[in-house]
Amino acid sequence: MMPEYRSDYHTPVLLEEAVALMEITPSACCVDLTFGGGGHSRRILRALGPEGSLYAFDQDRDARANCPDDARFHFVESNFRFLRGALRWRGVTQVDAVLADLGVSSHHFDEAERGFSFRAEAPLDMRMNQRGAMTAADVANGYSNEELTRVLRDWGELDTPWKVANCIERARAQRPLATTGDLVEAVRPCTPRKEEAKFLTKLFQALRIEVNGEMEALKMALEQSLRVLRPGGRLVVISYHSLEDRLVKNFMRSGNFEGRVEKDFYGRPQAPFEVVTRKALVPSDEEVARNPRSRSARLRCAVKRVDAEVQP
User: Fold this and answer.
1) For residues 68 and 56, what is the distance between their CA atoms, to the nearest angstrom?
2) From CA 213, how far away is CA 128, in angstroms rounded?
3) CA-to-CA distance for 175 and 124, rounded, in angstroms?
4) What are the percentages of helix, strand and coil residues in the chain, rounded to 5?
5) Is residue 102 within 8 Å of 238, Cβ to Cβ?
6) Which of 92, 119, 97, 120 is nearest to 40 (CA)?
7) Taking CA 238 as the corner, what is the angle to CA 269 and CA 223, rounded to the nearest 5 degrees?
8) Which domains are delineated in the chain?
9) What is the Cα–Cα distance from 239 to 61, expressed in whole angstroms?
10) 231-252 pLDDT per residue, tens
């Protein structure tokens, strides 16, 4: 029996749309790269028959409490960057569909002590995997001005990352930044009054991505998805900011992260995927009203070509 879904942990975004794009057959072998509260996984299990199977990844031990009691379900306590190796260790070499909902779970924002939100005073942590060594405090206090500027520019896409880095550097010279409140106060001199929430969201996003190595992990997961998908298999990804969406869009379009489409001798495109969603799907007005955190979601899907050339 599957326990009731914990909507307090995370509300799944674009649930029906994402599962429909997976085109699940009763005997399919599926992967949910971001288990979280289990909303997408439970919907996938409903679409599977008795002979189907689902492998769900999550590096956060808190997510294990959400696992359904279902013989078809297999929880993999691991970062999705290790997708291929984790599946091979379990005797799985090919799958029919891979789903990734890249958003941070509501659980992480709402559990103040995890330090993901600027709206609550908490230790400056931001680790998805609490066994990880580096925290956001380590980044804020230990990175050089140049390294901080890079993080704020590349992962936060802040307009003046050097100014923000300078603010952090000046504040930490007085005393280490230990809490989310310390960080907010440190950057107050360069925080725009009219766009404070947007600015702080980008700042916290930048540190979170750096702490968890999110962009590199996403690249690895996408590349491995291509390898484990059978010909005709489907890759479905929900992203929440332009950095993620750009990587996903380029990879589905070309098989690389620059969006560079290779051509054969006759000038024919050699992309390993056929894109299903020419334009990203977005939540309906009704869904955004129910779940405001879904407003930035972008859903894309691609099918692995039968003739795709993939490195072993």
Assistant:
1) 11
2) 10
3) 14
4) 45, 15, 40
5) yes
6) 97
7) 45
8) 15-106+214-304 (3.40.50.150), 113-212 (1.10.150.170)
9) 23
10) 999 999 999 999 999 999 999 9
Place 264 in a pLDDT band, splitting at 50, 70 and 90: confident
Distances (CA, A) of 15 to 133, 180, 185: 33, 32, 38
CA distance 278 to 272: 16
Q: Which amino acid is at 47?
A: A
The continuous run of DSSP H or E covering 237 comes out as strand 229-239
Pairwise CA distance, residues 290 & 56, whole Å: 26
Count CB neighbours of 49 within 10 A: 11
Inform me whether the pLDDT recorded for 83 exceeds 80: yes
Dihedral of CA atoms 270, 273, 277, 279 in degrees, nearest 10, equals -40
Q: Give the Cα-Cα-Cα angle 245, 215, 144 (nearest 5 degrees).
A: 130
